[in-house]
Specification:
Butyryl-Coa Dehydrogenase, subunit A, domain 1, Butyryl-CoA Dehydrogenase, subunit A, domain 2, 3 domains, two-stranded antiparallel sheet, 11 helices, globular
Protein backbone atom coordinates (compact mmCIF):
# COMPACT_ATOMS: atom_id res chain seq x y z
CA UNK A 1 0.00 0.00 0.00
CA UNK A 2 1.04 3.59 -0.58
CA UNK A 3 1.53 5.99 2.30
CA UNK A 4 -1.81 7.61 1.43
CA UNK A 5 -3.59 4.24 1.55
CA UNK A 6 -2.00 3.43 4.91
CA UNK A 7 -3.22 6.78 6.23
CA UNK A 8 -6.70 6.03 4.87
CA UNK A 9 -6.65 2.59 6.51
CA UNK A 10 -5.68 4.07 9.86
CA UNK A 11 -8.34 6.77 9.59
CA UNK A 12 -11.04 4.21 8.79
CA UNK A 13 -9.91 1.98 11.66
CA UNK A 14 -10.26 4.92 14.00
CA UNK A 15 -13.75 5.66 12.72
CA UNK A 16 -14.82 2.03 13.10
CA UNK A 17 -13.51 1.89 16.66
CA UNK A 18 -15.38 5.06 17.63
CA UNK A 19 -18.61 4.53 15.74
CA UNK A 20 -19.02 0.77 15.58
CA UNK A 21 -22.60 -0.29 16.22
CA UNK A 22 -23.21 -1.94 19.61
CA UNK A 23 -24.86 -4.90 17.89
CA UNK A 24 -21.68 -5.62 15.95
CA UNK A 25 -19.34 -4.94 18.86
CA UNK A 26 -20.92 -7.43 21.27
CA UNK A 27 -21.70 -9.89 18.48
CA UNK A 28 -25.30 -10.51 19.53
CA UNK A 29 -27.04 -9.91 16.23
CA UNK A 30 -26.23 -11.88 13.10
CA UNK A 31 -28.82 -10.09 10.96
CA UNK A 32 -27.55 -7.25 8.76
CA UNK A 33 -28.04 -4.07 10.77
CA UNK A 34 -30.12 -1.22 9.35
CA UNK A 35 -28.31 1.69 7.80
CA UNK A 36 -26.17 3.23 10.55
CA UNK A 37 -26.45 6.93 9.71
CA UNK A 38 -23.91 7.91 12.37
CA UNK A 39 -21.25 5.54 11.08
CA UNK A 40 -21.92 6.51 7.47
CA UNK A 41 -21.65 10.20 8.37
CA UNK A 42 -18.31 9.53 10.06
CA UNK A 43 -17.04 7.81 6.91
CA UNK A 44 -18.27 10.79 4.88
CA UNK A 45 -16.14 13.06 7.06
CA UNK A 46 -12.99 11.16 6.11
CA UNK A 47 -14.02 11.24 2.45
CA UNK A 48 -14.85 7.57 1.85
CA UNK A 49 -17.96 7.99 -0.39
CA UNK A 50 -16.11 10.60 -2.47
CA UNK A 51 -13.14 8.40 -3.36
CA UNK A 52 -14.52 6.93 -6.58
CA UNK A 53 -15.81 10.08 -8.27
CA UNK A 54 -14.00 12.69 -10.34
CA UNK A 55 -13.26 16.06 -8.81
CA UNK A 56 -15.62 17.72 -11.29
CA UNK A 57 -18.43 15.64 -9.78
CA UNK A 58 -17.59 16.56 -6.21
CA UNK A 59 -15.35 13.58 -5.54
CA UNK A 60 -11.70 13.01 -4.79
CA UNK A 61 -10.66 11.21 -7.96
CA UNK A 62 -9.04 8.24 -6.23
CA UNK A 63 -9.50 4.63 -7.33
CA UNK A 64 -10.99 1.26 -6.57
CA UNK A 65 -7.79 0.18 -4.79
CA UNK A 66 -8.40 2.95 -2.24
CA UNK A 67 -12.01 1.87 -1.70
CA UNK A 68 -10.76 -1.70 -1.36
CA UNK A 69 -8.71 -0.64 1.66
CA UNK A 70 -11.91 0.63 3.30
CA UNK A 71 -13.88 -2.51 2.40
CA UNK A 72 -11.23 -4.74 3.95
CA UNK A 73 -11.42 -2.84 7.24
CA UNK A 74 -15.22 -3.05 7.25
CA UNK A 75 -15.03 -6.82 6.81
CA UNK A 76 -12.49 -7.16 9.60
CA UNK A 77 -14.61 -5.04 11.97
CA UNK A 78 -17.86 -6.90 11.22
CA UNK A 79 -19.57 -3.65 10.26
CA UNK A 80 -21.72 -3.15 7.19
CA UNK A 81 -22.42 0.08 5.33
CA UNK A 82 -23.64 0.52 1.72
CA UNK A 83 -20.16 1.01 0.28
CA UNK A 84 -20.39 -1.50 -2.59
CA UNK A 85 -24.04 -0.60 -3.20
CA UNK A 86 -23.38 3.13 -3.60
CA UNK A 87 -20.45 2.37 -5.91
CA UNK A 88 -22.74 0.34 -8.19
CA UNK A 89 -25.52 2.94 -8.21
CA UNK A 90 -23.12 5.86 -8.53
CA UNK A 91 -21.25 4.24 -11.41
CA UNK A 92 -24.50 3.73 -13.33
CA UNK A 93 -25.58 7.31 -12.68
CA UNK A 94 -22.14 8.61 -13.58
CA UNK A 95 -22.09 6.87 -16.95
CA UNK A 96 -25.69 7.14 -18.08
CA UNK A 97 -27.30 10.20 -16.45
CA UNK A 98 -27.22 13.71 -17.83
CA UNK A 99 -24.35 15.95 -16.75
CA UNK A 100 -26.60 17.92 -14.42
CA UNK A 101 -28.05 14.81 -12.75
CA UNK A 102 -24.63 13.18 -12.47
CA UNK A 103 -23.05 16.17 -10.75
CA UNK A 104 -26.03 16.64 -8.44
CA UNK A 105 -26.27 13.04 -7.23
CA UNK A 106 -22.55 12.21 -7.04
CA UNK A 107 -21.80 15.52 -5.35
CA UNK A 108 -24.55 14.93 -2.79
CA UNK A 109 -23.34 11.36 -2.26
CA UNK A 110 -19.83 12.62 -1.58
CA UNK A 111 -21.21 15.15 0.92
CA UNK A 112 -23.42 12.59 2.61
CA UNK A 113 -26.75 14.21 1.72
CA UNK A 114 -27.74 11.55 -0.86
CA UNK A 115 -27.72 7.76 -0.77
CA UNK A 116 -28.33 6.20 -4.20
CA UNK A 117 -28.73 2.43 -4.11
CA UNK A 118 -29.24 -0.27 -6.75
CA UNK A 119 -32.55 -2.15 -6.84
CA UNK A 120 -31.74 -5.16 -9.02
CA UNK A 121 -32.78 -8.38 -7.25
CA UNK A 122 -36.26 -9.75 -7.77
CA UNK A 123 -38.09 -12.07 -5.35
CA UNK A 124 -38.48 -15.83 -5.83
CA UNK A 125 -35.86 -16.18 -8.56
CA UNK A 126 -32.15 -16.79 -8.89
CA UNK A 127 -29.94 -13.79 -9.44
CA UNK A 128 -29.98 -12.40 -12.96
CA UNK A 129 -29.11 -8.91 -14.19
CA UNK A 130 -31.99 -9.21 -16.68
CA UNK A 131 -35.23 -7.98 -15.07
CA UNK A 132 -38.54 -9.76 -15.53
CA UNK A 133 -40.83 -8.79 -12.64
CA UNK A 134 -40.47 -5.01 -12.87
CA UNK A 135 -41.70 -3.48 -16.11
CA UNK A 136 -41.30 0.05 -17.47
CA UNK A 137 -44.05 1.85 -19.36
CA UNK A 138 -43.45 5.00 -21.38
CA UNK A 139 -46.06 7.72 -20.97
CA UNK A 140 -46.56 11.02 -22.78
CA UNK A 141 -44.06 12.85 -20.57
CA UNK A 142 -42.24 10.24 -18.48
CA UNK A 143 -41.74 6.58 -17.62
CA UNK A 144 -43.45 4.62 -14.85
CA UNK A 145 -42.37 1.38 -13.16
CA UNK A 146 -44.47 -1.45 -11.78
CA UNK A 147 -43.38 -4.60 -9.98
CA UNK A 148 -41.32 -5.65 -6.97
CA UNK A 149 -37.62 -5.57 -6.19
CA UNK A 150 -36.37 -7.52 -3.18
CA UNK A 151 -34.19 -7.65 -1.28
CA UNK A 152 -32.86 -4.11 -1.64
CA UNK A 153 -30.38 -3.66 1.18
CA UNK A 154 -30.58 -0.35 3.07
CA UNK A 155 -33.64 0.61 1.00
CA UNK A 156 -35.39 2.59 3.79
CA UNK A 157 -32.43 5.00 3.88
CA UNK A 158 -32.21 5.49 0.09
CA UNK A 159 -32.69 8.90 -1.47
CA UNK A 160 -32.53 7.45 -5.00
CA UNK A 161 -32.93 3.97 -6.43
CA UNK A 162 -31.36 2.75 -9.66
CA UNK A 163 -33.88 0.18 -10.87
CA UNK A 164 -33.54 -2.38 -13.65
CA UNK A 165 -36.78 -2.93 -15.55
CA UNK A 166 -38.06 -4.73 -18.62
CA UNK A 167 -39.09 -2.47 -21.49
CA UNK A 168 -40.84 -3.25 -24.79
CA UNK A 169 -37.42 -3.22 -26.47
CA UNK A 170 -35.50 -5.24 -23.89
CA UNK A 171 -34.30 -3.99 -20.52
CA UNK A 172 -33.27 -0.63 -19.15
CA UNK A 173 -32.06 1.24 -16.09
CA UNK A 174 -34.18 3.89 -14.39
CA UNK A 175 -33.76 6.40 -11.60
CA UNK A 176 -36.43 6.69 -8.91
CA UNK A 177 -36.14 9.74 -6.66
CA UNK A 178 -37.25 9.93 -3.02
CA UNK A 179 -38.64 6.38 -2.79
CA UNK A 180 -40.97 5.79 0.14
CA UNK A 181 -39.80 2.40 1.40
CA UNK A 182 -40.16 0.96 4.89
CA UNK A 183 -38.54 -2.46 4.32
CA UNK A 184 -36.07 -4.11 1.97
CA UNK A 185 -38.96 -4.96 -0.33
CA UNK A 186 -39.54 -2.20 -2.88
CA UNK A 187 -43.01 -2.30 -4.39
CA UNK A 188 -43.42 -0.13 -7.48
CA UNK A 189 -46.92 0.68 -8.69
CA UNK A 190 -46.94 3.20 -11.50
CA UNK A 191 -43.94 4.87 -9.86
CA UNK A 192 -42.52 7.80 -11.86
CA UNK A 193 -38.96 7.24 -13.02
CA UNK A 194 -36.29 8.78 -15.20
CA UNK A 195 -34.79 6.60 -17.88
CA UNK A 196 -31.01 6.40 -17.62
CA UNK A 197 -30.32 3.95 -20.42
CA UNK A 198 -31.74 1.09 -22.42
CA UNK A 199 -30.52 -1.77 -24.58
CA UNK A 200 -26.94 -3.04 -25.01
CA UNK A 201 -25.34 0.14 -23.64
CA UNK A 202 -27.31 -0.08 -20.39
CA UNK A 203 -26.50 -3.80 -20.10
CA UNK A 204 -22.79 -3.10 -20.54
CA UNK A 205 -22.76 -0.33 -17.92
CA UNK A 206 -24.68 -2.51 -15.47
CA UNK A 207 -22.20 -5.37 -15.88
CA UNK A 208 -19.24 -3.08 -15.33
CA UNK A 209 -20.86 -1.37 -12.32
CA UNK A 210 -21.63 -4.73 -10.70
CA UNK A 211 -18.07 -5.79 -11.42
CA UNK A 212 -16.70 -2.78 -9.52
CA UNK A 213 -19.05 -3.43 -6.62
CA UNK A 214 -18.00 -7.08 -6.58
CA UNK A 215 -14.36 -6.03 -6.12
CA UNK A 216 -15.33 -4.33 -2.86
CA UNK A 217 -17.31 -7.40 -1.77
CA UNK A 218 -14.21 -9.52 -2.38
CA UNK A 219 -12.12 -7.24 -0.19
CA UNK A 220 -14.75 -7.18 2.53
CA UNK A 221 -14.65 -10.97 2.45
CA UNK A 222 -10.85 -10.89 2.75
CA UNK A 223 -11.13 -8.69 5.84
CA UNK A 224 -13.71 -11.01 7.39
CA UNK A 225 -11.62 -14.10 6.60
CA UNK A 226 -8.54 -12.44 8.05
CA UNK A 227 -10.37 -11.78 11.31
CA UNK A 228 -11.89 -15.28 11.39
CA UNK A 229 -8.44 -16.82 11.00
CA UNK A 230 -7.02 -14.57 13.74
CA UNK A 231 -9.79 -15.57 16.14
CA UNK A 232 -9.31 -19.24 15.27
CA UNK A 233 -5.54 -19.09 15.77
CA UNK A 234 -5.96 -17.36 19.15
CA UNK A 235 -8.50 -19.96 20.20
CA UNK A 236 -6.27 -22.88 19.26
CA UNK A 237 -3.39 -21.36 21.21
CA UNK A 238 -5.40 -20.66 24.39
CA UNK A 239 -8.05 -23.39 24.61
CA UNK A 240 -6.70 -26.49 26.36
CA UNK A 241 -7.72 -30.13 26.12
CA UNK A 242 -6.03 -33.02 27.94
CA UNK A 243 -3.85 -30.42 29.64
CA UNK A 244 -2.32 -28.94 26.47
CA UNK A 245 -3.40 -26.17 24.03
CA UNK A 246 -5.36 -27.31 21.00
CA UNK A 247 -2.54 -25.96 18.83
CA UNK A 248 -0.47 -28.97 19.94
CA UNK A 249 -2.74 -31.28 17.95
CA UNK A 250 -1.22 -31.60 14.50
CA UNK A 251 -4.49 -32.20 12.64
CA UNK A 252 -5.97 -28.95 13.95
CA UNK A 253 -2.89 -26.88 13.07
CA UNK A 254 -2.87 -28.39 9.57
CA UNK A 255 -6.48 -27.31 9.08
CA UNK A 256 -5.60 -23.81 10.28
CA UNK A 257 -2.68 -23.80 7.83
CA UNK A 258 -5.06 -24.69 5.00
CA UNK A 259 -7.20 -21.71 6.02
CA UNK A 260 -4.14 -19.46 5.82
CA UNK A 261 -3.25 -20.70 2.33
CA UNK A 262 -6.81 -20.09 1.08
CA UNK A 263 -6.82 -16.62 2.64
CA UNK A 264 -3.57 -15.55 1.00
CA UNK A 265 -4.72 -16.82 -2.40
CA UNK A 266 -7.98 -14.88 -1.99
CA UNK A 267 -6.11 -11.77 -0.85
CA UNK A 268 -3.76 -11.83 -3.85
CA UNK A 269 -6.66 -12.40 -6.23
CA UNK A 270 -8.69 -9.57 -4.73
CA UNK A 271 -5.76 -7.14 -4.91
CA UNK A 272 -5.17 -8.07 -8.55
CA UNK A 273 -8.87 -7.54 -9.30
CA UNK A 274 -8.80 -4.09 -7.69
CA UNK A 275 -5.76 -3.01 -9.68
CA UNK A 276 -7.34 -4.36 -12.87
CA UNK A 277 -10.56 -2.48 -12.12
CA UNK A 278 -8.61 0.76 -11.82
CA UNK A 279 -6.79 0.22 -15.13
CA UNK A 280 -9.45 -1.61 -17.14
CA UNK A 281 -12.93 -1.26 -15.59
CA UNK A 282 -14.41 -3.04 -18.60
CA UNK A 283 -12.48 -6.24 -17.75
CA UNK A 284 -15.41 -8.05 -16.13
CA UNK A 285 -13.96 -11.55 -16.58
CA UNK A 286 -11.06 -10.95 -14.20
CA UNK A 287 -13.48 -9.97 -11.46
CA UNK A 288 -15.68 -12.99 -12.13
CA UNK A 289 -12.69 -15.30 -11.80
CA UNK A 290 -11.71 -13.52 -8.61
CA UNK A 291 -15.18 -13.96 -7.19
CA UNK A 292 -14.96 -17.71 -7.77
CA UNK A 293 -11.63 -17.87 -5.91
CA UNK A 294 -12.82 -15.66 -3.05
CA UNK A 295 -16.18 -17.43 -2.73
CA UNK A 296 -14.45 -20.80 -2.46
CA UNK A 297 -12.08 -19.46 0.21
CA UNK A 298 -14.93 -17.79 2.09
CA UNK A 299 -16.95 -21.00 2.29
CA UNK A 300 -13.91 -23.00 3.40
CA UNK A 301 -12.69 -20.52 6.03
CA UNK A 302 -16.16 -19.83 7.38
CA UNK A 303 -16.87 -23.53 7.90
CA UNK A 304 -13.44 -24.32 9.33
CA UNK A 305 -13.50 -21.37 11.73
CA UNK A 306 -16.75 -22.64 13.24
CA UNK A 307 -15.58 -26.27 13.30
CA UNK A 308 -12.28 -25.46 15.02
CA UNK A 309 -14.11 -23.39 17.64
CA UNK A 310 -16.51 -26.19 18.42
CA UNK A 311 -19.83 -25.25 20.03
CA UNK A 312 -18.79 -21.70 20.88
CA UNK A 313 -18.47 -20.97 17.16
CA UNK A 314 -22.23 -20.79 16.70
CA UNK A 315 -23.17 -18.92 19.87
CA UNK A 316 -24.60 -15.41 19.59
CA UNK A 317 -21.98 -14.06 22.00
CA UNK A 318 -19.00 -14.97 19.84
CA UNK A 319 -17.84 -13.17 16.72
CA UNK A 320 -16.74 -16.02 14.49
CA UNK A 321 -20.27 -17.19 13.72
CA UNK A 322 -21.23 -13.72 12.57
CA UNK A 323 -18.17 -13.53 10.36
CA UNK A 324 -19.12 -16.84 8.78
CA UNK A 325 -22.68 -15.60 8.25
CA UNK A 326 -21.45 -12.46 6.51
CA UNK A 327 -19.11 -14.50 4.32
CA UNK A 328 -22.03 -16.72 3.31
CA UNK A 329 -24.03 -13.58 2.47
CA UNK A 330 -21.22 -12.16 0.31
CA UNK A 331 -20.89 -15.39 -1.69
CA UNK A 332 -24.54 -15.03 -2.73
CA UNK A 333 -24.67 -11.32 -3.43
CA UNK A 334 -25.17 -10.51 -7.13
CA UNK A 335 -24.77 -14.16 -8.01
CA UNK A 336 -22.89 -17.17 -6.64
CA UNK A 337 -19.96 -19.20 -7.96
CA UNK A 338 -22.22 -21.18 -10.29
CA UNK A 339 -23.54 -17.93 -11.76
CA UNK A 340 -20.06 -16.54 -12.30
CA UNK A 341 -18.74 -19.74 -13.90
CA UNK A 342 -21.77 -19.91 -16.19
CA UNK A 343 -21.17 -16.31 -17.24
CA UNK A 344 -17.51 -17.04 -17.98
CA UNK A 345 -18.43 -20.18 -19.91
CA UNK A 346 -20.57 -18.22 -22.36
CA UNK A 347 -17.41 -16.46 -23.59
CA UNK A 348 -14.99 -19.36 -23.62
CA UNK A 349 -14.96 -19.36 -27.42
CA UNK A 350 -13.44 -15.86 -27.33
CA UNK A 351 -10.19 -17.27 -25.91
CA UNK A 352 -7.52 -18.97 -27.92
CA UNK A 353 -5.88 -22.28 -27.06
CA UNK A 354 -2.28 -22.77 -25.99
CA UNK A 355 -0.22 -25.89 -26.64
CA UNK A 356 1.88 -26.13 -23.47
CA UNK A 357 4.13 -28.79 -25.04
CA UNK A 358 4.99 -26.82 -28.17
Amino acid sequence: MTDEQKALRDAVRGVLRRHGSPAAEDGRSAAPPPHDATLWEALVEVGVPALAWAEDDGGVGAGITDLAVVATELGRARLQVPLAETLVAGTIVGRLATDETRREILGALSEGSALPLPALDEPLRRWSPTPTDVTATEGPDSWTLSGTKAPVRYAPAATHLVVSAATPDGSGLFLVERPEVATEEVVLDGTPATRLGEGPEADRVLREALSLGAVLLCHEAVGAMDEALRLTSDYLNTREQFGVPLAHFQTLTQRAADMYVELELARSSALYAAMTADDEPEDVDTVLRTRVVVDRAARHIGREAIQLHGGIGVTAEYAVGHLAARLADITRTWGDSRTHLSDLATRIADHGSVDVLA
